[in-house]
Every structure is written in C-alpha cells, then in structure tokens.
Amino acid sequence: MYLKIIISSIKYRRGLYIPMLAAVAISLCLIGAAAVVGSSFDKIIDKEMTKYGANVILKSNSVGHIEDENVPLYIKKLKINGKDVSVAEGSIQYLLKINPAWLVKGRTNILVGKTAASKLNLKAGQATEINGVKGMIAVFESGTDFDSFIFINKKANSPNMFLIKTNNPMKYKGMNAVILEEMVRTKYAVIESIKKLMVFIALISAIASITAVINLCRVDTAGRRKEFGIFKSLGASYKSIWKLIGSEFSLLAVISFIIGFAGSILLSWLVINYTAHTMISVNLQSLIIIGITSLLSFSFAAMVFIIESKRLHIVEELKSE
Amino acid sequence: MNNIEDSAIRRIIIFKNIVKDYGSVLALNNISLSLEEGMEHIIMGPSGSGKTTILNLIVGLDTPSVGEIIVDGKSLSNLKKEELSEFRREKIGIVFQQFHLIPYLNALENVMLAQYFHSMPDKNDAILALELVGLKERAKHLPSELSGGEQQRVAIARAITNNPKIILADEPTGNLDEENERIVLSIFKQLKDEGKTLVMVTHNQQIASIGDNIIRLEHGKIRESSKGVNLEIPAELY
C-alpha cells in the first residue's frame, strides 16, 4: 500500500514532476559530465606523463627521508653495480600530484641527484646497472631535497624521462628541460577549457534546478495541503506523512540520478571522444557528486512539503468549498 | 488521559462549557452536552451556527478556546498531537460533504489508505466495507470515474473500515441526489443498528427526522435538543 500511494502520487503529479525531473536531470548531466570529464582529464594527463618515461623514483636511505606523507614509499634493496643498496621506492605518479614535472628530453636512463651521487659514489657518465636497468648516469643538482633522489627510466623505448620540478634551475649537462605537465595540459587545452566551462555551467544549473524544484513544488502546495488534511483526518501521524513525502522524493531522486548519470556519461563521452579521442573514465567521485546533487535537489522539495504539513490547519484545508 | 466513571460510559461524547472563538467570531458559546452511545445524533442549524465546529472539536481537528471535551473516556485537551492522531484513527470515522477522497487512488485503495494509517492494510476487509456500501463492483475505479453518490459511499466505507465507535458526518448528503441520499441514509441506519454512534450535521429537515436525537444550534448556542442529549453534565463528571 505504501509503495502504491507513492507511485500513484508520482503518476498523478506527472505534469509537475516531469519538468521537475527534467530540470534536475539536466543539471545532473552537466554536473556529472564536468566531474567525469575532470577525472578523465586527470587520467589523460597521467597517461601522457607515464608515456614520457620514468615511473620509479628512488631515494637512498642513507641520505634521509622524504618528509611528505602523501608520497607512499617502500623500503627496497637495490643492486647498483652489483652492490646492495637500501632505498625507498615510490611511484613518480604520486610525486606528480604534489609537484609539477619537468620533461627531460634526450635518452637518459638514470638521473641521480648530486647528494645521492655523492653518497652512493656514482659519477656522471659512468655506465651503471640498477636492478637490471642499464644506462649512463647523469647527475643533477637542484639545491633541494630532490638532490637525494635517483630517477630511473624504466621504459626502454621512451626517448625521454621526466623529473621533479624544483624552485632552483636544474643544472645538468646536455639536457633540455621543459615543464611536462604544462606541455601536456597545453596539448589538451581544449578539454581543460571545456572542463572549466562545464563546472561553471554545472554550478549555475544546480542553483537553477534547485530553484525550479522549489518553485514547482509551490505550485502544488494547495493540493498537497488538502491531501495532508485528509491524511490527518484519517488519523495519520506527522511521521507517517513525512515518510510518504520522503519516500516519494527519494524515488524521484533515484529516477533523476539514473537519468542524470546516463546523460552525464553520454555528454562526457561526446566531449572527451571528440577532443581527446580517448575513453572516458567514470570514478566513484563522479557518482557521489551526481547522487548528492540529486538528493539535495529533492530534499529541498521534500522540505517544502514537510514545512507545509507542519503549518497545516486541517479544518481550513477540509472545510466545505 | 482521564478515565470516566462507569456511570458515564454510555455518554460517549461530553462537552463541558465549551467556548470556541475565531478571533472576534464566537462559533460556540458555552455549550455543554453529552451524547449517548449507539444513537444517531443530528446537529442542525443555520450556516455559521457552529455545527461543523462541534464535529471538528469531537474529532480533535480543532481545539476549544475554553472548556473540556471527553470522547469515549478520553479528555482531548490532555492528548498530545500524536495521541490525538491515534485517537482519531482508533475511535472516529469521518465523512465529509466534499467526500475528500484521494484522487489518484481507486475506491479500494482509498479504503485501504485508512487501514494503512490505522495499522495494516487488509484488502479483504476493505472489499467487505465496499460491499457494505454496495460498491464492490466499482472497487477499481478512481474517484473521478464514480458519481457523487458513489464517491460518498466510498468515503463511508473508508470511515467504517477500521471499525470505529463513532462516525461523524458533515452534510453527507449535501451534494447528492435523492436516490443517493436514500442509499447513504440507509447505510447510516445500518451502522447505527450495529451499535455505532453517529453524529451527523445536516440542513435537511427530512433527514433530521430519522435521527434519534436532534440538537438545534443558533449563534453558537443550543436552541433546543431532544431527549437523547443531556444538556446538563452530571456532577460526577466534573
């Protein structure tokens, strides 16, 4: 009976709910698409950067620890020129999240910071083998903590590798450094602009849809008040009325979530496919954003009626016309 | 909640010095009465005389400005909002002139709605209630597909489905033709025969004549009443 009341009420009010659902769904499409495009864009950047080379960063234990807790590092034994060295290993992808990267053009397999080179007794131009990666050592000096790092290019076919950007100019011979992230972002500047535009439009449309939902609800206030009056005359408690309102709008939120999610996938696919020619990446965050927006929109609607039910004067609602 | 002494059990509705005003408008002016259980009480009077106000006060949809109302042993002024809702769904069935059916639920569902708020919906009980008002065959019809008389009979089925002790009806035949009026009144008579207490507001003198007791109101006061209505509240109830 409970479900029957909710579904019948939604069907009965379809003239009101269809535009309401459309307003919320359009907003959710834009918000979801902005989130999906955003996360897809981040993935593209990651992918592009990985394509350029180094993906492992090593730091000699003997030269101190990385302070940043956001960079997970694992203690590892390395064989450098046949000698065991204890190092901390982490993915450069993590470091990229806190530091923009520099692209080091020119084939270089092993880049060693000045401090690390000194501690490990490695020299520039020396033929070295680190865990099976063979290469010539290039020593760099940044004047920062990164001088304690060794960067290994594990991609044999990659002509370049990248390095963490530091405040000081990089000093190493024969290398031409550019900011990789900037380069990649420039390549995908169109998506970046679309993403920013979508976020802006999504915010405006979220405000517009919530306003539309509240105003559409107000159109139905008189009908609802009479209905609540009838419910109360039948002995309904406020809780049972609120349960019906809450369930009705929760169901609408679920419907709008499904439409909005499907729409946002389609929209983000169109944006990503036509600008970056790659696959979109849907993550949990995008789903949560769509879900919360959907719930929020209909929570406002439910609140309008919950307040109305509390302000209700039953006799006035039911008196003879 | 007040429990009334045994001597008062038959007096199912008691008004003690009730005053009801809406700002400057005095709807009921110091009314005292007690209505006997199992009888059909008719409230008559011109528009604005306070008839509907009495029904609203009995069902707890409105509260008196002064005085106390006791229904089936419970003092309504002592009940909290949720207790009043419970009292309404347990003790009272109400029938309105405008029927007040839920437009998107069919006849059967409208009856089951009252069961839903009461406890658990029971389709068979709801069908029985519709059968009693002669609408079993129209159970799947929406209110918009029913005539006025049929809608009123659905409203009666909804009012009786939870087996309340008291049935209140506010001009239940006001919007009906003669044939439907006759059907509705025969249903009320049947309910009275089953021991229900009926309190009906009407303008119709002919309908009033079939009631057990008549209370005539004028300007918020009882002008006259017949034998089944005690205008003096027994001392033990104070």
Question: How are the SSEs ordered, and which strands pair?
Answer:
The complex is a heterodimer of chains A (321) and B (238).
Chain A: H1 2-12, H2 14-51, E1 56-60, E2 74-80, E3 83-91, H3 92-98, E4 101-105, E5 110-113, H4 114-120, E6 127-130, E7 133-140, E8 149-152, E9 161-164, E10 176-179, H5 180-187, H6 189-219, H7 221-233, H8 238-275, H9 284-311, H10 314-318
Parallel strand pairs in A: 5-7
Antiparallel strand pairs in A: 1-3, 1-8, 2-3, 4-9, 4-10, 5-8, 6-7
Chain B: E1 11-22, E2 25-36, E3 40-44, H1 51-59, E4 66-71, E5 74-75, H2 81-91, E6 92-95, H3 107-118, H4 123-132, H5 148-160, E7 166-170, H6 178-193, E8 197-201, H7 205-208, E9 213-218, E10 221-225, E11 229-230
Helix pairs in contact in B: 3-4, 3-5, 4-5, 5-6
Q: Terminal Cα separation of chain B, in Å? A: 15 Å
Globally, the shape of chain B reads globular
Residue share in helix of chain A: 55-70%
Helical region count of chain A?
10
Instruction: Tell me roughly what share of residues is in helical segments of chain B.
Output: 25-40%
Order of helical and strand elements of chain B: EEEHEEHEHHHEHEHEEE
Rg measurement of chain B, Å: 17 Å
CATH superfamily of chain B: P-loop containing nucleotide triphosphate hydrolases
